[in-house]
Amino acid sequence: MGEAAVQDVYFINGSSEKEKQKWYEEEVDDDLKLCYSLNSVLHRGTSKYQDIALLDTKHFGKALLIDGKMQSSEMDEFIYHECLIHPALLCHPKPKAVFIMGGGEGSAAREALKHRTIERVVMCDIDEVVVDFCRRHLTANSEAFANEKLCLVINDAKEELQKREEKYDIIVGDLADPMEGGPCYQLYTKSFYEKVLKPKLQRHGIFVTQAGPAGVLTHKVVFSSIYNTLRHVFKYVIAYTAHVPSFVDTWGWVMASDQPFVLNAQLINKRIGERINGELLYLNGESLVSSTIMNKSVHQSLLKETHVYTEENARFIHGHGRACCA
């Protein structure tokens, strides 16, 4: 899995007995690393775009890694995917068609398909190896992959949107973080939003994207820039955040539209009851409204941000997974 590696680590656990344990280490910055204790490495794969691994972690259960970066874990992926999908669909008056950029693991499609009004979900991922890997190994999404409303396309999302004539009520950016040399950082740029994505939205259409870490110490990496970039393209833009334990940080998402958002807890709860099959585990009206309220530090950064994401002037997430040291 490229730079992402796992090795045995020996440690002393409060006694003279030497115990052996596997760890996975992810580099967040040059001087900051995260370690995840493992039961085993379940599967590994490589495509022409990226490295893929499925780990069995002791704390978070099965965890999917792409290019050595944690993408989701069994224990808390519902937080990320509910926040990615449901706010936009619940703010829309009657969403019928959804286009997902990326989303190869199937969890974003799974959440979108919970909405009774949805008639069609197009999931477009560039990497067939990742999609096949997730379809085989992430059994929680088996029903979503088999759903007749799902149209799975293997292609570059920009190219696919450009050639399609249909428009969508919701377009979702479930993309990997913008990493230097990665396959998708251009899908965070002003020119892409303005010239390719926005023309494919219906009149009341909403775009939502994952926007990277949004903690007090990390929100300036890409979150504030993605927010500001979308403000240059759409009339109404809302940022919101949630803590995702396996990411060991607060995470950010941004919604954008040319129609105003109505964020009312009572209305959101009403729509959840009317529209969604099954129970949401994380989101309700109150938590959605509160998630849009930033702490003072992040709020001021969003207001003052001047950077606009372009192909020539991009910001990137740092780090890869590496072998840890004893």
Unreliable spans are 7-18, 321-326
Q: Tell me the series of helices and strands, N- to C-terminal.
A: EEEEEEHEHEHHEHEHEHEEHHHE
Structural class: alpha/beta
The number of helices is 10
Overall pLDDT level = 91
User: What is the 3D form?
Assistant: globular
> How many whole angstroms does the radius of gyration measure?
20 Å
**Count of beta strands:** 14
In angstroms, what separates the terminal alpha carbons?
20 Å
Q: Estimate the helix proportion, in percent.
A: 25-40%
Tell me the major beta sheet: 7 strands, antiparallel
Strand content: 25-35%
Q: What attributes does this structure have?
A:
about 325 residues, alpha/beta, 7-stranded antiparallel sheet, 7-stranded mixed sheet, 10 helices, about 35% strand, EC 2.5.1.79
Question: Would you kindly provide a written description of the structure presented here, covering whatever features stand out?
Answer:
With 326 residues, the protein is of the alpha/beta class. Helix 7 crosses helix 10 and helix 8 (265-275) packs across helix 9. The strands form 2 sheets. Strands 1, 2, 3, 4, 5, 6 and 14 form a 7-stranded antiparallel β-sheet that branches. A 7-stranded mixed β-sheet has the order 9-8-7-10-11-13-12, with helices on both faces. It has helices spanning 77-91, 107-112, 128-137, 142-146, 157-163, 190-197, 223-231, 265-275, 285-291, 296-304, and strands at 6-12, 18-29, 32-46, 51-57, 61-66, 69-73, 97-102, 120-125, 150-154, 168-174, 201-213, 236-244, 249-257, 321-322. It is globular and about 55 Å long. The two termini are 20 Å apart.
